[in-house]
Amino acid sequence: MTKALPTRLAHAGRISAVSGGQPVNPAVVRASTVLFESVAQQREMRARRDTERLFTYGARGNPTNFALEDMVTMLEGGYRTRLFPSGLAAAAMTILAYVRPGEHVLLPDCVYEPVRNLANGFLRQHSIAADFYAADGSDLDAKLRPETRLVYAEAPGSLVYEMCDLPALAERAHANGALVAADNTWGSGLLYRPLELGADISLMAATKYLCGHSDVMMGTVCTTEAAWQPLATMSDSFGMAVSPDDSYLVQRGIRSLGARLAQHQESALAVAQWLLDRPEVAQVFCPALPHDPNHTLWQRHCHGTNGLLSFTLHSQAPVAPERFVDSLQLFGIGASWGGFESLAVLADMRRARSISDWSSHGTVIRLHIGLEAVSDLMSDLDQAFAAIAHIESTEQESSHAHHR
After folding, report:
1. For the segment 70-89, what is each residue's pLDDT rounded down to a tens digit?
2. Which of 8, 72, 344, 365 has CA 20 to 30 A from 332's CA?
3. How many structural domains are present in the chain?
4. 304 and 208 share a domain?
5. Bridge partners (DSSP) listed for residue 309
């Protein structure tokens, strides 16, 4: 039967039978509709897909997504992984999968701020009780309730990198009948391994180090076998899906993760040590530094550090941190981190914490040290310090005049 060109175009190119070897990277499979050989096969696949990973419809994933899921599962050391359109979506689905209205979730004081906003807004509005515990877990026992279903952890914590003793925290949570979910974006599977430390669920913003090139939004959640099914069911119910093109980009990023993190670590430690010697700097936050109060736990549980560090200025002038960041030339001013580029942002810790008291500290300047030459980054920071020197001089003159 001769078919018209529109018909042939609609049906061509579905199968490519080419003799030869295999590509290094998986193919990008773009598909919403999936075709079956028969009604019986379609019925069978749909009956099995709630508990098995099957290619049945685009919203349930495709071979490109599955390949990335397998990479993340291997990286995290878990049972299975689901992909989400952002790191925040991964965090939200994690909480909603395991906590129901009338139940309780505990979150650390150092949690990623959008998750804090989720807890204070959506969760409370839908009768899910949410409380915060100290970043080091020291008050966890006092915060646990009979209805606590999930203890959420983040180590190192956002912005100033507090550590908790995750194995001890998990033991206490499990004894109370709660699961433990850990945000592993900082550790990215190589530097920190929550599932090995007792967590049931590990989530990451693949937007950051897994992708590594600042051009993909994605989140991942990997669980133990016992914890898997609620997450899978909730994700399917909400139609959570990601683009195969984005999955391909994150796969490609993961392949260089080890090499990139090693360079980020080397440069960040060099900058951190350099900042410690600057007279303008009051405090440097980096758990890999021996003076950091989190260093012992970092040594025990982490396998290196990344490109993140933060610091505060001695200057109490409110304009100094903003003037400093505005004066940087190589550091971009932008949210996120984990890409090849260096970034600088300001953080108001009084807003970002509710348990610990940050009233005596100045504004925190968070740096992500990228893959540029560290000497160039130091030169950029040096000229930014010079740009705020007159602010400190004016402060001193004003203080002397006041005392006279």
Report:
1. 999 999 999 999 999 999 99
2. 72
3. 2
4. no
5. 367
